Amino acid sequence: MKDQSNSSKQQKPKLTKAERRELQEAQRAAKAAAKGEGNKASATATSANARPAKAVKPAQKSDNASVAATEKKGGDFPHEKDRKKDVPQPRLQYDDKSRVEKAKRRSVVKQTEARNRVELFRHLPQYEHGSQLPDLEAKFFDLYPMHPAVYKVGLQYISGDISGGNDRCIAMLQAFQEAIKDYKVPPEKSLGRDLTAKIGSYVSFLIECRPLSISMGNAIRFLKSQIAKLPLTLSESEAKTSLQADIERFISEKIVLANKVIVKHAVTKIRDGDVLLTYGSSLAVEMILLHAHELGKQFRVVIVDSRPKLRGQQLLRRLVEKGLNCTYTHINGVSYIMHEVSRVFLGAESILSNGTVYSRVGTASVAMVAHAARVPVIVCCEAYKFHERVQLDSICSNELGDPEVISNVPGRMDVNHLNGWADIENLQLLNLIYDAMPSDYVSMIVTDYGMVPPTSVPVIVREYGREQVWI
Amino acid sequence: MDFQVVVLAGGVSKKLLPLVSHELPNALLPVANRPVLSYVVELLELSNLKDLIVVVEGKDTALNVGAWISGAYADRLHVEVAAVPEDVGTAGAIRAIARHLYAKDILIVSGDLVSDVPIGAVAATHRRHDAVVTALLCNTPVSGPLESVSSGGKDKAKKPGRYDLIGLDPTKQFLLHIATGAEVEKDLRIQKSILRSVGQVEIRADLMDAHLYAFKRSVLLEVLDQNGEFHSLKHDVLPYLVRSQLKSEVLLNGTPQAEENGTEKVISQSNQQMLSQILANASEPTFHLRHELSTNGSDSVRRTHKCCVYIAGSNKYCARLNSLQAYNDINRDVIGEASHLSGYSFSSHNNIIDPTAELGAKTTVGPHCMLGEGSQMGDKCSVKRSVIGRHCRIGANVKVVNSVVMNHVTIGDGCSIQGSVICSNVQLQERATLKDCQVGAGYMVTAGSDCKGEVLTKK
């Protein structure tokens, strides 16, 4: 694990001597802790020692590259005893050939690199989308160690049946619940370590199917910390039911209940006669609008949508069924419609520590137009999606979708000018999934901890993000 | 992966009558010198499914099949042979073995399927959509010449309906309508509710149901219990499930999950509802969900279940051995285009000649032929596109074209066999000419006889 971190450090710009010394101290401390850990028969009760053991365990597994990426994607909170956690390891950069080769050898899903890759985004994974699903399907019966529920979720990710931060997170957690239910501790192994390793392998499989979203990373970190905190006196079945209950509580408190609280706060911001604009389809925003309508407020909704997914159409259908007054437009018309709008409600995939809002591509543009027209922008996001990472642009970390869906319009066979784009060498198609909105555009963030300005996000992450306070 | 495999090996079918007999049941009919059941078993073994239940009609047949299986696959697979009474139909067969089924999903394969479609793909599609049934569809095989001549009797007016009418949704993932051969003459009836929910139905006549289904076990057993009159899976159960997919009456989750494990896992009712609503609003709601949500407000909750399909790629081979014509075609294909299925390696002349076979002088064996072990051919013979079994004695000047000759056959000099099937232990005396005939086991064709399109069996 240390070799890995060293080689990956070489990619970053040279650390100063003090930082390198600090890193070395932290690694030595971790090694000593791990050795002391290994002498004991099972995981110790104190979470401090369990954490390096847990962090080291997944790293010592064979497929450690992607798991390390998951682990460190969340980063770890500073703890008195292990300072090495201060510096999160960089994620797997896909333009580093040797690490990509290593990861590919261990991978379950066979990926073929896409043709005509965009140079600027070479550090992100870009694969041909057509062949993944049939290939994974054909291997259905070969992958015995994979739990069927996890496999099913992986298939659903690849085929696009489930997309959207909340849905993916819930599907993954429910699959883990089932996997835990069917899990049996092998003899002479401790439940904590073995289960953590198993969850790590499931997570790396899911990453291969589709890169994790930030909320999923937080949920996985929560699950691993809960496993580590299990007292040793519990029997196997008690431990399993306790973990299942924890997952259930996470879903119901951090997602379902959080959305209800957000709705309660945000409807106070809607007055009669408002014209509200939203982009794409966000669960929180939809619930706010429906609740406000139930309360009898009179307002209009403008839904801005964009290709290729056209998620706004489903939101439109659901709102119209409930009787709301809706207008629908595409993103090329947003600057025209902004003059009529009094407030903008947006959803988010995640909010980062410097107040940057990371959400579906196009959201940043809508917020910028709103800012220019002096329309307040209200972002609604559950607190479990907050992250202490800082991102200044949408290039260093993003996700690339299938370029084919840009090149054709469903239902319009005559619009086929981009057929055969892959053969043209100097033509590259880029389908970005996410973008980053600077905090200046955001007037207020509504979370389940209340209505806060964007500068309060690191406070929430720090105070409420510790694993003791998760649930 | 929580799947159980059931192979329906049938018994002694009437459609293949001169070829099959009490000693040689359907399942053991040789295709390219291998029993047809071996193709299914090999396919399952390739997909890593080592635990099978083989259902055979009739006790003696079951013993026969069981003996062969344990001889051939004793160490590699774990096979349970179950005998059911004759003529119960495929649904009855499943009812009979219901107590052996415990996995969450059941894969039901017909024993006469010759194919190389990856079974994992069908199972994965089934799981991905959480479907109640998933059917494998393949392109209808193009049948060779001599279509209705061999089907006993000169009934040219009655064309066997070898194709099915399949209704698919625009994304080609869900099965909206299925009508099998015999019903095709009458009108086609499509549920209006299905048409309204989906919007667009594509009806195809070029796809064939390959009789490989993945069923959810609880639903299958429930349907069979409630409808005791269902006789066949393909003709009764599958259309029933497809018709009722938007008005589902089957209990999808087995026992209701009212009881928890006694911990503080208390989820309030509204939370649960909201959770299901969140998941229902997931990206691409299928027409099932749209139908469910749109009928909200009525007191009875409309449940729906999904019937999915997996369409085999056009480069995969898939055929069912359910008629004499199919027998000829499959034999030809397995040594011809689909030669990778036969498992043999081809010689340089593109045919398979067993090393112990002896060929006389000036005997030619053309491409796409197969010669079994211990067979002897006389001088000046010519074999074209045919399969010859083991330990045959073939005289001189014999022409065998487009035919299947099974084991231990004696063919006299000067015979000419075209487009026929000759079963085991048959003796053909000199200068017999057979064209498009089927000769049952143990028969003796007298010298100089000239038969066209006949079925010759021992009385």
From TrEMBL, chain A:
Residues 16-25, 70-101 have a biased composition (Basic and acidic residues). Residues 1-109 are annotated as: Disordered. InterPro entries: IF-2B-related, IF_2B-like_C, NagB/RpiA_transferase-like. Pfam families: IF-2B. One of its GO terms (molecular function) is translation initiation factor activity. Residues 26-55 have a biased composition (Low complexity). Keywords: Initiation factor, Protein biosynthesis. SUPFAM superfamilies: NagB/RpiA/CoA transferase-like. Residues 1-10 have a biased composition (Polar residues). PANTHER family: TRANSLATION INITIATION FACTOR EIF-2B (PTHR10233), TRANSLATION INITIATION FACTOR EIF-2B DELTA SUBUNIT (PTHR10233:SF18). Belongs to the eIF-2B alpha/beta/delta subunits family. This is Translation initiation factor eIF2B subunit delta. It comes from Medicago truncatula (Barrel medic). The gene is 25495589.
From TrEMBL, chain B:
Pfam families: LbH_EIF2B, NTP_transferase. It is found in: Cytoplasm, Cytosol. GO terms for cellular component: cytosol. GO terms for molecular function: transferase activity; translation initiation factor activity. Residues 354-445 form the EIF2B subunit epsilon/gamma LbH domain. Its main location: cytoplasm. Residues 5-143 form the Nucleotidyl transferase domain. Gene3D superfamilies: Hexapeptide repeat proteins (2.160.10.10), Spore Coat Polysaccharide Biosynthesis Protein SpsA, Chain A (3.90.550.10). The keyword Zinc does not apply. Keywords: Cytoplasm, Initiation factor, Protein biosynthesis, Transferase. InterPro entries: eIF2B_gamma, LbH_EIF2B3/5, NTP_transferase_dom, Nucleotide-diphossugar_trans. SUPFAM superfamilies: Nucleotide-diphospho-sugar transferases (SSF53448). Acts as a component of the translation initiation factor 2B (eIF2B) complex, which catalyzes the exchange of GDP for GTP on the eukaryotic initiation factor 2 (eIF2) complex gamma subunit. Its guanine nucleotide exchange factor activity is repressed when bound to eIF2 complex phosphorylated on the alpha subunit, thereby limiting the amount of methionyl-initiator methionine tRNA available to the ribosome and consequently global translation is repressed. Component of the translation initiation factor 2B (eIF2B) complex which is a heterodecamer of two sets of five different subunits: alpha, beta, gamma, delta and epsilon. Subunits alpha, beta and delta comprise a regulatory subcomplex and subunits epsilon and gamma comprise a catalytic subcomplex. Within the complex, the hexameric regulatory complex resides at the center, with the two heterodimeric catalytic subcomplexes bound on opposite sides. Belongs to the eIF-2B gamma/epsilon subunits family. This is Translation initiation factor eIF2B subunit gamma.
